[in-house]
Write a structure and sequence with these properties.
The protein is built from no helices and 28 strands. With 312 residues, it is mainly beta.
Length: 312
Amino acid sequence: MLGGALVASSALLTQGCTKDTDSDDDLIGNWTTSVDFRGNGRSEAATFTIGDYVYLSAGTTDRDRFKDLFRFSIADGYWTQRADLPGAARSSAVAFAIGNKGYLGTGYDGVARLNDFWEYDPALNQWTQKANFAGTARRDAVAFSIGSKGYISCGYDGNYLNDLWEYDPTAAAGQQWSEKPSMGRKRAEAQAFVINGKAYIVSGDNNGEILQDLWMYDPSTAQWTEKRKIYNYNSDEEYDDDYSAIGRKNGTVFVMGNYAYLATGESGGASVSNTWRYDPVTDLWLQKTGFEGTARTGAVAFSRGDRGVVIT
């Protein structure tokens, strides 16, 4: 079962972070169309960034799943096709980068949920199969990397999940994956980002409920901390009075500077366009200019200098 409507648009849309303000009266930020994606339009792809290049693979339309790989030059703004993923074509996979290698795994091939795991070497333009993901085969998980380790959490294996697994590419065979403490409520189709060595997982879906929470993981202590709720729940303070529709599933997050930006996704059975900026120092959200492309779910995002990019 795939979450949300499928979007065929293949254009990059970027949001600048200039003219920033915390005014409650104006929504600041400007979305513009950028370089079109070279491959087929798709939903639920996976991306990782290595140096000045962003890599995009997998994804689905209402008819096909993909295993192709495209590379985007952040500096020059163009796409080139690279070596296909050798494993099954899939959607709802996860990916991250560690050093100069990219990693992709899990997902759904149209019949079964997957737990295979692959390493991509951009210097050789070559994929190598690594030890299978040690958690249950799943789709709609989240992934991130911090330092020399990668992490996969949450997702759906027939049940909603909240486990966390750490991947160490330098560990001996059979020891690359280790389970870490689970986060709060179980969920799939959540959004994850990393700022200053801490990982954050926000919202997502649990059995049809859009969750209204945000959790932070500190790998140095292997501990989760729940942050402030992302809806207007505190009647004694004003900071959340304007919070509305932050929670979602299948959205995108990009990081610029010390802020994270949450855009697109789905809530209440409809695609959403509103965009929110999160400040981890104050633990507060500020609404920004809404995404100006077609409302969509299952997109992907990355940062390009002082611009955030949402694509597919």
